[in-house]
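Run log, item B.
One chain of 230 residues. Sequence copied directly from the ordering sheet:
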Amino acid sequence: MKRRTRFHTIGWGVMVSVLICLLTVGITVGTAGAKVQYIRLGCGGPGGSWFQMVGGLSALFNKEIPNVNVSAVSSGGSVALNRLLRQGDLESTFQHTLTIYDSWNGVGVFKDKGPWKDIRMMTGMYESWHHWVVSEKSGITKMAQLVGKRVNVGSVGSGSAANSVLILQGLELYDKVKINNLSFGDAGRAIADGQLECIGMSSAPMAAVVTLEASHKIRLLELTDEEFKK
């Protein structure tokens, strides 16, 4: 039976809201000599890929677009960033497509908030894979062996946590593992110290996993075709 080492989440990492307007407005205000436009661009916490990507993009936009000041705003992740966007505390942010789907339709993690249509997708950024990472010395080689183990799904409010929970529920494992909600960086260190057995993470490369792998042998758990169907 064909086996896979990564779970491909439904969709892509995306940039949302007014960033496309930022490019147009930035050029306009530069030409007209208007005041500096301030744009808050949301990202996840340190140890995750979005933190690095948004930091780099902010520097690039500030260099290339006249009279525009883009600042990176770090938060728990996709869900928390969407809430900040709803509140008007961000102009633009990275998002998982699953989070946007829930927010747009008022379902899932946004069932209590209702649908929110005041949002626009600018572009797909990259294909977002979900990884289940364990240390090689744990002896864990498949998802079923996580029963009774300490599993970090991701920090509260992160897309990684939302995706991890969906997968564990689909595999009927959610109520059978010990759920943790550490940050990316803390989760990587906890695996190294033997305080966790597994971490679920969306996107790559994850700084926390790269750092972990530099000193410890790791394994990406494989899912069977039957598990993918579930």
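Observations after the first pass:
- The first strand starts at residue 3 and ends at 4.
- Residues 150 and 195 are 8 Å apart (CA to CA).
Flagged for discussion on Thursday.
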